[in-house]
From TrEMBL:
The chain crosses the membrane at residues 6-27, 39-60, 72-90, 110-131, 151-170, 177-196, 243-263. This is FTR1 family protein. It comes from Actinoplanes sandaracinus. It is a multi-pass membrane protein. The keyword Ubl conjugation does not apply.
Length: 278
């Protein structure tokens, strides 16, 4: 549940910030008449994302009746989720400083096109976050092997993100988004490593990869599967009491270099201000 809450919080805040930038631009430009089109585009993006998540679940539980096919499908979705998580984390790290200006420029162009252009622009600005959330949520839940609770945790994360975004927009509350995205980025990288580990496990279950019973470690005697901390490690990062060699290699091979790249200083220094300028 913590992993899905984190997914909802991170993706939800990104989407909320996008929407707040669009709304603030229209209010400041005295174009409140276009706000319904923005909300229509956002609503369509949310509906498509929910439908995509339902399609993933329906495919796995109903369309794919063969065990090996189902395991292979879950493996593919897990690997795709890891790709999207990694891309999203590094994209936000690179684009955070320019995203507001880019969105304002695109919205200004959409206003010149008309109401449909505004709705489409809002839809495209939000739908990427929604589709990513559905895919990552599906993969995380499959890896955790639980039902029910993670959905509420995801919704809780999204509600929290909306509340934070509203406080930032409507009040004087300010949050250090750089620190927030760095901390959540590190946690999501570890979550993604667990999803990748689960994807490799599914590939072994489906028979695509060998070595399912070749264990890298077995600490079930020390890490009791019935304890709360084992459930936390398993649900959050897919750190299990036992793991095959390929699973362990995949977890380490992803987490270590990606964390190193993510935490590496960007090397950018602000340009010096000339002495003649205030």
């Amino acid at each position: 549940m913590l992993a899905t809450y984190l997914i909802g919080l991170r993706e939800g805040l990104e989407a909320t910030l996008v929407v707040s930038i669009l709304v603030a631009f229209l209010v400041k430009a005295d174009r409140k008449d276009r706000l319904p089109q923005v909300w229509a585009g956002v609503g369509a993006a949310v509906a498509l994302s929910v439908g995509f998540g339902a399609l993933l679940s329906y495919t796995s539980t109903t369309l794919l009746r063969d065990y090996d096919q189902r395991e292979l499908f879950e493996a593919i979705t897990s690997i795709l989720a890891v790709v999207f998580v990694t891309w999203m984390i590094f994209w936000m790290r690179r684009a955070a400083r320019s995203i507001a200006g880019d969105l304002r420029g695109k919205l200004a162009d959409a206003l010149a096109v008309g109401s449909i252009g505004v709705a489409v622009m809002a839809f495209l600005s939000v739908v990427r976050e929604g589709l990513e959330t559905s895919l990552i949520f599906y993969s995380a839940v499959q890896g955790a092997g639980v039902d029910g609770g993670p959905l509420y945790a995801l919704l809780g994360g999204i509600v929290t993100a909306v509340a934070i975004g509203w406080l930032m927009y409507a009040t004087a509350v300010r949050i250090n988004l750089g620190v927030f995205f760095t901390v959540t980025g590190v946690l999501l990288i570890l979550v993604a490593a667990g999803i990748l580990k689960y994807g490799v496990h599914d590939l072994q279950e489906s028979g695509v990869l060998d070595g399912l019973n070749t264990l890298a470690y077995d600490v079930s005697g020390t890490l009791d599967p019935s304890t709360w901390y084992t459930a936390l490690l398993t649900g959050m990062f897919n750190v299990t009491p036992t793991a095959s060699v390929l699973e362990a290699v995949a977890w380490v091979a992803y987490a270590v270099p990606v964390l190193a790249l993510f935490l590496r200083p960007s090397g950018r220094t602000p340009a010096p201000v000339p002495a003649s300028q205030p």
